[in-house]
Amino acid sequence: MSVPDADFSPDDSQVASAASRTPRDVLSLYHRALQARSADQLAELYAADAIHEFSVPVPHRPPVCHGREAVRSAYRTAWAKDPVIIESLENTFVRQAHDDPEVVIGQWQIHGTLLATGERVNVNGLLFLQVRDGVIVHSRDFLDGLEAALAKVA
Hints:
- By secondary structure, the protein is α+β, with helices and mostly antiparallel strands.
- The protein has one domain: Nuclear Transport Factor 2, Chain: A (Roll).
- The chain contains 4 helices and 6 strands, in the order ααββαββββα.
- Strand 5 and strand 6 (135-143) form a beta hairpin.
- The radius of gyration is 15 Å and the shape is globular.
């Protein structure tokens, strides 16, 4: 069994151009955009015709985004309504798929605070990214729906 590389983070020289990015680089950049709540930074990680699937219903997001601009729009709308301030994002594990070098799998946990109450929350997620030529062509996004729902109701 290998040790998870939960602290993986590429340096700027590794992510300078899309073509040179590995799937792990893209996952790290995805997490940076998520923590910054930057729909533009996130969307630029996607191919123009990419598919982003939310495998579990997520408030304020469509079940599937077709294309980079749909990703940008969905996240811009969702983050405008999100009641959680993200303070940190921690990788639980990151794995490269053995049978497909384009696929990286990452489990993460967001630590944050509810805007309305100041209560601390933790939300877990799992992300499968298929990365080709340094951009996401397909993603499957799993969010702990119960934790997310409780955070929004609290």
